């Protein structure tokens, strides 16, 4: 099976999140508005390099999946997102990722 652009984007996102400096990660996650600003910046950069809404949502989905599995929520908004993520099926999580992209766009 050929390595697709989608898979390459997902791999880059996963590596970036896993390798992020713990201090920077804590700064981003400590406040929901800071998290939204960070995500907005990444969405904007993604659009500038030609990523479409679906690719952006896939990247957001990868980040959300990582956060749900590896990070404790730092505020009530993150707690709600984590709970929704955990109870959602694959399709619902994908739709939630689209909504996160829309929220910060």
Outline the structure in words.
This protein is mainly α and 105 residues long. It has a single domain, classed as Protein of unknown function DUF3243 (Cytochrome Bc1 Complex, Chain D, domain 2, Orthogonal Bundle), CATH 1.10.760. It contains six helices and no strands. It has helices at 5-18, 22-30, 32-48, 53-70, 76-87, 90-104. Helix 1 (5-18) runs parallel beside helix 4, helix 4 (53-70) crosses helix 5 and helix 4 (53-70) packs across helix 6 (90-104). The longest helix has 18 residues, at 53-70. The chain is globular, with a radius of gyration of 13 Å. The relative contact order is 0.14. The model has no long low-confidence stretch (mean pLDDT 89).
Distance between the termini: 33 Å
CATH topology: Cytochrome Bc1 Complex, Chain D, domain 2
Question: In terms of quaternary structure, what is this?
Answer: single chain
The whole-angstrom Rg is 13 Å
According to DSSP, the number of beta strands is: 0
At the fourth level of CATH, the homologous superfamily is Protein of unknown function DUF3243
Strand content: under 5%
| Average pLDDT | 89
Kindly name the structural category: mainly alpha
Helix/strand order = HHHHHH
Largest sheet descriptor: none
CATH second-level architecture: Orthogonal Bundle
Shape: globular
Number of domains: 1
Please give the structural blueprint.
Elements: H1 5-18, H2 22-30, H3 32-48, H4 53-70, H5 76-87, H6 90-104
């Amino acid at each position: 099976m050929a390595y697709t652009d989608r898979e390459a984007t997902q791999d880059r996102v996963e590596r970036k999140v896993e390798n992020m400096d713990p201090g920077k990660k804590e700064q981003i996650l400590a406040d929901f508005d800071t998290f939204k600003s960070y995500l907005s910046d990444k969405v904007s950069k993604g659009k500038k390099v030609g990523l479409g809404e679906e690719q952006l949502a896939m990247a957001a989905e990868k980040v959300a999946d990582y956060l749900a599995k590896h990070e404790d929520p730092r505020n009530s908004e993150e707690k709600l997102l984590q709970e929704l993520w955990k109870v959602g099926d694959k399709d619902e999580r994908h739709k939630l990722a689209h909504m996160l992209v829309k929220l910060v766009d």
